[in-house]
């Protein structure tokens, strides 16, 4: 690796990998380090949505909503395998928001940015039909999009690596100092090996740890403070048969999503609670779980209890500390703060805030701010980005092609491969003539060929990497099957040194 690098990025979440991808695509020399697995924190604990943020209109954040709606169109094109349209239903609660207010908000939502791929909003009478309580007389319907958040991060990292970036998961930055116009950065890998890297530009994209990095790694106080907001989700058996999502209004002003999840389940969230603990040790409280169940039970005929929760997770959103009011009202917008040494060299760009929908725009903004400190390059390019595996027309056409190429593949497996890997699945399906050729079966359609691919090409090292971030098969595998998978992966890691 030639040094100095043009840029080193600390943080392997969506913003860090997005910046790495944009920079590498401009022809710059880039490396990214992440102390754990890619997307191991906030970026895998979102509500799994690419959306403008309908509720942000009430907070008059029109610029943020407009940018997010425009990005929604771009990302639907960039990653059709892991991002797809999702229709939302909003039950009308007249005592919470009058119908005219919702109609106005949805009209703005439809028209704030160009909308080519998604249908507009409208109102529907319920007439006692469907999964909702009979007293809910009508619903409003509108469009947004679903995303497999952790896979989005991994695909950005893969695309960056394809363009020459160095991606180093399980590599912690222990010190960064300016010297002679460059950054000198000390790194320690999971195996204990140490190295020093030099770079012209340093980007702090550590998410909830962005301020903490100044306290332990960087030679200056943080330029801003974070407000950490905890969001928790629960997964329960499927609440309704349709493919639509629901957005529920609650008396306290919060809104709760009920999303179809992994075919057999419903994903419910999120809470918004100020958080002061370690972002790496966050988990849903019993009160949050009960709260989410109660909101669902006031809307759905099928009632749920906390003991029905199959899976739960929390994430910590790193928002700007100057956000006032209740946690759910804190701005999801981002700020990029730039500092240099006394000679106006060795810039440090710190990323505060942001949301998964606007990661591409954030990355482009970051690179544009750093242009003066970087070698001449090709400039912005990601508007027409297609992420690895996204080079196909739609799910149905790709599924049809895979069924022709691999007629022995079960239908459910074809569907999962399409919505997880797109055309990348051919990398572990090619040259196989039958299901037994895929090797050891760990359960729920997870075969050794897929695990080998994830370890070789997508930086997976542990069962959590495979079962909760690269796939969601942790919902299906028994403890014994997970131990079987762990033994297989440990043996593979030892064999590969």
TrEMBL record:
It is an enzyme of class 1 (oxidoreductase). The keyword Oxidoreductase applies. GO terms for cellular component: glycerol-3-phosphate dehydrogenase (FAD) complex. Its EC number is 1.1.5.3. Residues 6-357 form the FAD dependent oxidoreductase domain. The keyword RNA-binding does not apply. Keywords: FAD, Flavoprotein, Oxidoreductase. Residues 382-476 form the Alpha-glycerophosphate oxidase C-terminal domain. Gene3D superfamilies: 6.10.250.1890, Alpha-glycerophosphate oxidase, cap domain (1.10.8.870), D-Amino Acid Oxidase, subunit A, domain 2 (3.30.9.10), FAD/NAD(P)-binding domain (3.50.50.60). It catalyses: a quinone + sn-glycerol 3-phosphate = dihydroxyacetone phosphate + a quinol. GO terms for molecular function: glycerol-3-phosphate dehydrogenase (quinone) activity. GO terms for biological process: glycerol-3-phosphate catabolic process. Its cofactor is FAD. Pfam families: DAO, DAO_C. InterPro entries: DAO_C, DAO_C_sf, FAD-dep_OxRdtase, FAD/NAD-bd_sf, G3P_DH_FAD-dep. Belongs to the FAD-dependent glycerol-3-phosphate dehydrogenase family. This is Glycerol-3-phosphate dehydrogenase. It comes from Oceanimonas baumannii. The lineage of its organism: Bacteria, Pseudomonadati, Pseudomonadota, Gammaproteobacteria, Aeromonadales.
């Amino acid at each position: 690796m030639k040094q100095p690098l043009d840029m080193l990025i600390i943080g392997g979440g969506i913003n860090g990998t997005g910046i790495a991808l944009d920079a590498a695509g401009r022809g710059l020399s880039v490396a990214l380090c992440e102390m754990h697995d890619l997307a191991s924190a906030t970026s895998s604990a979102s509500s799994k949505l690419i959306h403008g943020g309908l509720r942000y209109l009430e907070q008059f954040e029109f610029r943020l909503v407009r940018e997010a709606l425009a990005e929604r169109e771009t990302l639907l094109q960039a990653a059709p395998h892991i991002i797809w349209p999702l229709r939302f239903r909003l039950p009308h609660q007249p005592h919470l928001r009058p119908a005219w207010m919702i109609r106005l908000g949805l009209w703005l939502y439809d028209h704030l940015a160009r909308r080519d791929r998604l249908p507009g909003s409208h109102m529907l009478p319920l007439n006692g039909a469907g999964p909702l309580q009979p007293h809910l007389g009508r619903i409003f319907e509108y469009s947004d999009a679903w995303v497999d958040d952790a896979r989005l991060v991994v695909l950005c990292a893969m695309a960056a690596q394809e363009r020459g970036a160095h991606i180093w998961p399980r590599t912690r930055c222990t010190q960064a100092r300016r010297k002679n116009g460059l950054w000198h950065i000390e790194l320690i890998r999971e195996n204990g090996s140490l190295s020093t890297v030099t770079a012209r530009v340093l980007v702090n994209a550590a998410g909830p740890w962005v301020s903490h990095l100044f306290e332990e790694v960087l030679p200056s106080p943080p330029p801003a403070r974070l407000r950490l907001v905890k969001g928790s989700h629960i997964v329960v058996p499927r609440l309704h048969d349709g493919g639509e999502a629901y957005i529920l209004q609650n008396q306290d002003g919060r809104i709760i999503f009920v999303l179809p999840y992994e075919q057999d389940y419903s994903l419910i969230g999120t809470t918004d609670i100020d958080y002061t603990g370690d972002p790496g040790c966050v988990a849903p409280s019993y009160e949050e779980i009960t709260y989410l169940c109660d909101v669902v039970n006031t809307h759905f005929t099928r009632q749920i209890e906390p003991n029905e929760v199959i899976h739960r997770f929390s994430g910590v959103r790193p928002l700007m500390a100057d956000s006032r009011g209740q946690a759910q009202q804190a701005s999801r917008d981002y700020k990029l703060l730039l500092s240099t040494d006394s000679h106006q060299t060795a810039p440090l760009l710190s990323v505060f805030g942001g949301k998964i929908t606007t990661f591409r725009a954030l990355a482009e903004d970051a690179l544009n701010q750093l242009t003066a400190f970087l070698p001449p390059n090709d400039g912005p390019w990601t508007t027409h980005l297609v992420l690895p595996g996204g080079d196909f027309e739609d799910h149905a056409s790709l599924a049809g092609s895979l069924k022709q190429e691999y007629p022995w593949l079960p239908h459910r497996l074809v569907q999962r491969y399409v919505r997880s890997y797109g055309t990348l699945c051919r990398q572990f399906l090619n040259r196989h003539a039958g299901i037994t050729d895929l090797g050891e079966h760990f359960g729920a359609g997870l075969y050794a060929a897929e695990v080998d691919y994830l370890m070789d090409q997508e930086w997976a090292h542990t069962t959590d990497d495979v079962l909760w971030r690269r796939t969601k098969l942790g919902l299906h595998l028994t403890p014994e099957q997970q131990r079987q998978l762990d033994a297989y992966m440990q043996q593979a890691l030892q064999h590969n040194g």
